Amino acid sequence: MINKRYKGREDNILRITVSEIVDVTGGVILGEKTEDKLNKFVTHVSSNSREIEKNSLFVAIKGERTDGNKYVASAFDNGASVSLVSEDMDEETLEKGVCIKTDDTLRAIQKLAGWYRKKYQIPVIGVTGSVGKTTTKEMIAAALGAGKKVLKTRGNLNSQLGVALMMFELTDEYDIGVIEMGMSEPGEMHRLTEMAGPCAAVITNIGVSHIGQLGSRENIRKEKIDIVRGFRKSGILLIPSNDEMLNAPDAFDRENVSREADVILDDSQIIYYGEDEKCLIKAENIHNEDKGVSFDVDIPGKGKHRVSLAVLGVHNVYNALAALAFADIFGVDIKAAIKGIEEYRPVAMRGEFFEKNGFTIIDDTYNASPDSMKSGLSVLWDKKCDGKRYAVLADILELGQESERLHREIGRYIAKNNEGTIKTDVLITVGREAAYIAKEAIKGSAEIKDGAFVVRSFEDRADALDFLKSNIKAGDLVLCKGSRGMQMDKIVKGVLDD
Fold first, then answer.
1. What is the pTM of this model?
2. The domain spanning residue 305 has which CATH number?
3. How are strands ordered across the β-sheet holding 124-128?
4. Residue 386 DSSP code
5. Which of 204, 231, 327, 454 has the greatest count of CB atoms below 10 A from its CB?
6. pLDDT digits (tens, 9 = 90+) for 423-469
C-alpha cells in the first residue's frame, strides 16, 4: 500500500520549501535571511542549468571537468528559484534567486533525496551488478507494469547524483519503484541505498567493471552486497545461480560483507534464479531463435510457462527470470508479466539490431566490460547469418592493472570458440588495449587456415570504419562494442549513414 498525499505536495507536483532544504541539508542561506526566502518552494530538481524548469532547485555540482557554481546565474535566468551551491555568490546572482551554501552539494542533495523518499512507503526494488543492470531494470519494470504503476530509473540516472534525482520523481500515483544502482568506488552503494531505501534487490553478477578503483572482484562483491543495507530490517535478495562469486560457499560470510549487511541478511530471504536445481525460479529448454530466445519458466505454485523474448542470449534469459520472480513476489499475474517482458525491446545502443543493404549491425556500444563483451559475442555467434560474422571491439576502460590480462582473455575466448567451426570470421579491434584481444586471438587460432579468420587492429576509429565499410557485404552480421568513451556508436552511424 502507498501513503496518501503528504502535506506539501499538491496534484502530484513536487513542493519543497527553502526552509525544509536548509533544515535537511544543514545549509546556510547566502545574503539576507527573510521569511519570503524561507517560504519559497521548488517543484523540480536539476543539476543541468540548461534543462531548468520554472521553480526548479538547481544543484551546482563541482566535478573534475566542470564547476556547477559557475552556472548558477544562468540557472536562475532559465527559471530556477533556488540553488544549492558550495561557493559564495556575487550580489547580482543573489538578487536572481535563493542560494543555499553547503560544503558538499552532492551530499546535500543526497540527504534531501533520502528525506523525501521516506515520505512514501511504496516498495522499491534495487538493481545492481557489473553487467546487465539496465536491461534487467527494464524487464522488471515491464513485468511489474502489467499490473502496477511503476517508477523506473530514466536513462543512465544510476549514480550518486542520478539516484538522488530519481527520488524526486516519486509521487503517490506509483505502486512500486525499480531503481538502478551503479557504483565505482568503496562506500558508494551505501549512499545509494540511503536514498532509495529498497525492500528488495537483485545483483545480476559480479564482474570486473571498475576493478581499477575497487582492486579486486572480492571488493566488488562486498560493495554490491551492501545493497541490502537499504532493507533496514529484512527484505528479499535475488541471486543468479550462474555467478561463481555470488555462489561461492563464503559469499555471504561476515568477512565478505559489511557487518551491517550481514546482520540484515540474517533476517532476509535470498532467492536463487537460473537453471540449477537450487533455483526457486528456474529456466528450462532454452532455445536461441533467429530474432530472440525462448525458454520454459517454472514458478512454484504457478506451473510452467513458455516465454519468447525479442532479444538474444542466455544472459537475457536470466534477466527475464529476475523480472518474473519480482512479478510473482509483488503479486502481478504471471501470464500478464510474461506478456510484458515479451514486448520488451532493447534500449538504445544496448543490443539494437539495424539492417541496411542486406547486412545487419548489432549496436551494443553503450558500454562494455569483459563479461558484457563475451555476452555480446555470444549473440553474434547465436544469430543466424548467411555471410560473415564481424566482431568490431574497442578498448574496455577502467580496468586498471588488470587491463592487459582481461583483454587477452577475450582474445582467447574468441579463439577457443573458433575451434572446429568459425564463429568469428573477421575481428577488428580499435584502441591500444583492444589490440591485446587481436594478439591473443591470432595466437590461439594458429591452426585456422589462412584467410578463414581475418584480424585487423587500428588505433584510430576512422580507419576501422573505413576497413569495415570496404569489406562488409549483404548477408554479413556485425557486432560493435566497446566502452562508452571509445564512441563506437560513431562506427555504427558511419556504416548506416553510408
1. 0.91
2. 3.40.1190.10
3. 150-152, 176-180, 124-128, 200-203, 236-240, 269-274, 281-288, 293-299, 303-309
4. S
5. 327
6. 999 999 999 999 999 999 999 887 777 678 999 999 999 999 999 99
The total domain count for the chain is 3
Q: Which amino acid is at 494?
A: G
**Segments of the chain scoring below 50 in pLDDT:** 1-10
C-alpha cell at 454: 581475418
DSSP, res 10: B
Place of cell 526457486: 280
pLDDT score for 382:
92
Domain CATH for 368: 3.90.190.20
**Cα–Cα distance for residue pair 303/7, rounded to 1 Å:** 45
> What DSSP letter does each residue of 419-484 carry, written as one string?
SSS-S-SEEEEESTTTHHHHHHHHHTTTTSPTTTSEEEEESSHHHHHHHHHHH--TT-EEEEE--G
DSSP conformational letter for 52: P
Length, in residues, of the chain: 498
Cell triple for residue 255?
A: 568477512
Phi, psi of 201 (to 5 degrees): -160, 160
For residue 252, which of 238, 266, 272 has the smallest C-alpha distance? 266
Grid coordinates belonging to 264: 540484515
Say whether 150 sits in a helix, a strand or coil. Answer: strand
- For residue 57, the SS3 value is strand
Neighbours of 256 (CB within 10 A): 17
User: Cα dist. 418→109, 227, 423, 451 in Å?
Assistant: 51, 39, 5, 13
- Can you say how many angstroms the Cα of residue 281 is from the centroid of all Cα atoms in its chain? 23
Q: How far apart are CA 130 and CA 240, in angstroms?
A: 13
Cell numbers standing for residue 214 = 575497487
In the structure grid, which three cell numbers stand for residue 471, read together? 569489406
Nearest one of 62, 383, 402, 355 to 219, comparing CA atoms: 402
Compute the 3-state secondary structure of the chain and give helix, strand, coil in percent, each to the nearest 5.
40, 20, 40
Is 44 within 8 Å of 57 (Cβ atoms)?
Answer: yes
- Whether residue 233 is found in the same domain as residue 280: yes
Distances in whole angstroms, Cα of residue 44 to Cα of each of 163, 171, 201, 325, 460: 15, 13, 28, 34, 42
Q: Which domain holds residue 230?
A: 122-342
Q: Are residues 218 and 69 in the same domain?
A: no
8-state DSSP, 284: E
